[in-house]
């Protein structure tokens, strides 16, 4: 197998693993919402958001940096240096795991009671804390294996981790409910699934590590070069990884902020019970639904990032411009129909998946804002691809400050919707700053004069979807509610996607001449529809 084939195969494995992990992670929230009440949902949400924030701080950026350093050493035929770097990373991960576990465990009661103002969440946070013992080490092992071009280990461990986490979390929650425990302990049981998931993932990584070690012994590769000082290695790792770590914090930080401020900001306006209910809907329902649109759009746009990096390194300005434009265009065009379908059908989606119809407006508003999350993540990836991680980091920090300030200002006026609006504003500001920075390096235009056609497409699609949703909901009077909601969701999804694609082509937002530059999946989708395009637009190109 050639290096190119190995790279493509590895990329597919990691992308598939990430997709499966994301879907399983979202799927966990649905049964838990049925098992828990508002206090339990809020507790699980807070624990999960605190954990993901600390996990990002402990691991994000360092594995990719480690992968880069290891692959470079093996390319230079210096395996002993690569193994010393790996050894140093494992020392760091062990220390970081202990520190963060103890920190999370002992600070949990104070944070839950005095910051988030949901004291019941302390047990759920503490139950999840031991997962941080292993996850930094798992992340380092994944980075090392990627550097050795051994992608299967990371992909398999991600899938096994999510399966174990979801099954054990839901299983423990169900057992505790049946045994009569209150929601404080049921949420803690659900959180503890994350610990068991980390144990399963670690077991997989140990298996592959032993396999790789046997392979190295057969090839008689040397062990780590212990003469290389650890200080220099850590300096190199952190110099490269800290901007990436901070750049990747946008979404975990915003979810953490929401878990921390919803109850304090809303209690005085709507009362403690209603504030807890709003947090429960935001965390368990809205965040899980809003996690769907970015999956495909980000995967498609990020597949172009290595090409962007290569074009930037070659100083090929024309190719760079085309690929930057394409990445942004694909992320918007592929993300938007999923956003519009979910927004239009938010009432039906809520009724289909969850235990009540409360909070459909919260789901719709948070989901609509994910289009700005998609553009933020895509533009941020482009900045990383062209070596501007520090600029991306600064923009994320500015966005998070705006999120905090806007939440405090808007919550008294609009309640939970003000806090959600602050999230969309944060994503929008980061996107605008990222695009300005990219334009300073390479001029580009995403849709140019076609924005009018795109906006008409969006408005007609979401309006039609809403009408279909309202009509579909009349079925509740004739058939069981969940069946009615299921049929309505299918109808809304089909109508929105069809109208969206047809209008994109008829209004010339997408054109025949551009298809060859798109990924094959999109070419296959759009090519048969191009016959709908007026000939004057087809000829204009």
Walk me through the structure:
There is one protein chain. By secondary structure, the protein is mostly helical. 83% of the residues lie in helices and 0% in strands. It is built from 23 helices and no strands.
Task: Tell me briefly what this model is.
The protein is mainly alpha-helical and 541 residues long. Helices cover 83% and strands 0% of the residues.
Main sheet record:
none
**Strand segment tally:** 0
Low-confidence stretches: 1-8
Instruction: Assign the structural class, choosing from mainly alpha, mainly beta, alpha/beta, alpha+beta, or little secondary structure.
Output: mainly alpha
Q: How many angstroms separate the termini?
A: 39 Å
Summed over residues and divided by their number, the pLDDT gives a mean of 86
Question: What string gives the helices and strands in order?
Answer: HHHHHHHHHHHHHHHHHHHHHHH
Task: Please state the oligomeric state of the protein chains shown.
Answer: single chain
β-strand amount:
under 5%
Shape: globular
Task: State the main characteristics.
single chain; 541 residues; mainly alpha; disordered N terminus
Write the topology of this structure.
Elements: H1 3-35, H2 38-59, H3 62-75, H4 79-115, H5 121-128, H6 131-147, H7 151-178, H8 183-218, H9 230-247, H10 250-270, H11 272-290, H12 293-302, H13 305-314, H14 317-344, H15 346-353, H16 360-368, H17 370-385, H18 389-414, H19 416-441, H20 451-472, H21 481-506, H22 520-526, H23 535-540
Helix pairs in contact: 1-7, 1-11, 2-4, 2-5, 2-6, 2-8, 2-10, 2-11, 3-4, 3-6, 3-9, 4-5, 4-6, 5-8, 6-8, 7-8, 9-18, 10-11, 10-18, 10-19, 11-16, 12-14, 12-17, 13-14, 14-16, 14-17, 14-20, 14-21, 15-16, 15-21, 17-19, 18-19, 20-21
């Amino acid at each position: 197998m050639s290096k190119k084939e190995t790279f493509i195969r590895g990329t597919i494995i990691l992308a598939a693993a990430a997709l499966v992990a994301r879907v399983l992670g979202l799927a966990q929230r649905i049964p838990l919402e049925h098992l828990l009440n508002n206090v339990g949902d809020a507790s699980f949400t807070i624990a999960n958001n605190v954990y993901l924030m600390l996990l990002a701080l402990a691991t994000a950026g360092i594995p990719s940096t480690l992968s880069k350093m290891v692959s470079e050493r093996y390319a230079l035929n210096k395996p002993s240096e690569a193994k010393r770097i790996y050894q140093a990373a494992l020392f760091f991960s062990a220390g970081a795991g202990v520190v963060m576990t103890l920190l999370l465990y002992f600070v949990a009661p104070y944070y839950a009671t005095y910051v988030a103002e949901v004291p019941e969440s302390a047990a759920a946070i503490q139950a999840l804390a031991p997962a941080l013992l292993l996850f930094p080490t798992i992340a380092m092992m994944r980075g090392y294996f990627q550097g050795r071009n051994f992608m299967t280990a990371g992909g398999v461990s991600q899938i096994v981790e999510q399966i174990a986490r979801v099954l054990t979390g839901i299983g423990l929650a169900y057992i505790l409910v049946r045994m009569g425990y209150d929601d404080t302990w049921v949420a803690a049981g659900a959180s503890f699934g994350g610990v068991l998931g980390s144990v399963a993932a670690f077991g997989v990584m140990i298996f592959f590590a032993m396999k790789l070690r046997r392979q190295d012994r057969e090839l008689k590769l040397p062990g780590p070069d212990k003469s290389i000082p650890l200080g220099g290695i850590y300096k190199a790792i952190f110099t490269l990884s800290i901007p990436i770590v901070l750049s990747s914090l946008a979404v975990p930080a915003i979810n953490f902020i929401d878990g921390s401020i919803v109850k304090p900001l809303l209690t005085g306006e709507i009362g403690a019970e209603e504030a807890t209910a709003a947090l429960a809907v935001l965390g368990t329902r809205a965040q899980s639904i809003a996690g769907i649109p970015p999956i495909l759009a980000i995967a498609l746009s990020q597949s172009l990032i290595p090409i962007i990096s290569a074009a930037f390194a070659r100083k090929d300005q024309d190719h760079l411009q085309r690929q930057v434009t394409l990445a942004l265009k694909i992320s918007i065009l592929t993300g938007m129909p999923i956003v519009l379908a979910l927004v239009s059908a938010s009432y039906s989606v809520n009724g289909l998946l969850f235990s009540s119809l409360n909070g459909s407006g919260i789901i719709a508003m948070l989901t609509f804002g994910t289009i700005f999350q998609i553009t933020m993540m895509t533009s941020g990836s482009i900045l990383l691809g062209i070596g501007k991680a520090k600029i991306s980091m600064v923009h994320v920090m500015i966005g998070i400050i705006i999120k905090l300030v806007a939440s405090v200002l808007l919550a008294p006026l609009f309640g939970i919707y003000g806090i959600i609006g602050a999230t969309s504003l944060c994503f929008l500001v980061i996107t605008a700053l990222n695009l300005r920075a990219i334009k300073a390096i390479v001029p580009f235009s995403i849709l140019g004069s076609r924005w009018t056609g795109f906006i008409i497409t969006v408005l007609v699609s979401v309006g039609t979807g809403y009408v279909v949703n309202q009509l579909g909901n009349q079925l509740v009077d004739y058939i069981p509610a969940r069946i009615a909601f299921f049929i309505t969701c299918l109808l809304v999804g089909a109508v929105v996607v069809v109208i969206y694609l047809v209008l994109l082509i008829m209004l010339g937002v997408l054109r025949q001449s551009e298809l060859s530059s798109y990924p094959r999946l999109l070419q296959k989708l759009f090519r048969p529809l191009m016959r709908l395009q007026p000939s004057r637009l087809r000829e204009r190109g």
